[in-house]
Amino acid sequence: MTAVLFDFSGTLFRAESTGSWLRAVLAEARQTLGERELAEAARGLEEAGALPGGAPPVRVPAELAGLWGVRDRSAAEHRAAYTAMSRLVPLPDPALHDALYERHMTPAAWAPYPDAHEVLRTLRERGIGVGVVSNIGWDLRPVFRAHGLDAYVGTYVLSYEHGVQKPDPRLFATACAALGARPRDVLMVGDSREADGGAAALGCAVHFVDHLPVAERPDALLPVLGLVPHRAPADPAAPAHDPTD
Predict the structure, then answer these.
(1) CA distances (Å), origin 180, targets 2, 158, 183
(2) Membrane spanning segments where (predicted)?
(3) How many domains does the chain have?
(4) pTM of the model
């Protein structure tokens, strides 16, 4: 292996709980809900799948199904899809739905898994290229910078910047090319067999982790280090290779 690609949400980072998300936005807006009303609203938002990076929706209304299916294709579609799901839940001020969306894009709304720093740092020390390939509608780079992980990432390939979503192999191919790695020498690590498993069609190896709360998943990324040994020094006499090979 010469490179490892990681998914973002549920793999390297986890979004805050729906309750924490709602509380933070209410506090910023200087609005209050009773504990019972707050719990009911948070439960409704979770069932609606309104928090990007949170639980998937229990049910997608027919009128939103088309938009939901392409939500990671562009920034506009991402915002429209998630705010539409949020608006299925009554809140004391309609402006709170947009505020919730804005909140989820802040570094404070995300926490890295406990072993993420160690794994990314060790891969870099071993000379292994690291990329992030994410279905997303906004720029997650500030989240990595705020949590001290950006220095370990060689490339970010984000669906909304390319107009295609995983499992489309073009996203994985773009990441491999950016890292100068052949797909057969690349490991993709993610939590979605459907989306992240798309890397296998390109020839990448794939390793899955469970999308769990941070406190419940302290070391699931560590096995990646066992799959990726120290990189051997490059042979200057070896012929150049095509990264997309």
Answers:
(1) 9, 18, 10
(2) none
(3) 2
(4) 0.91
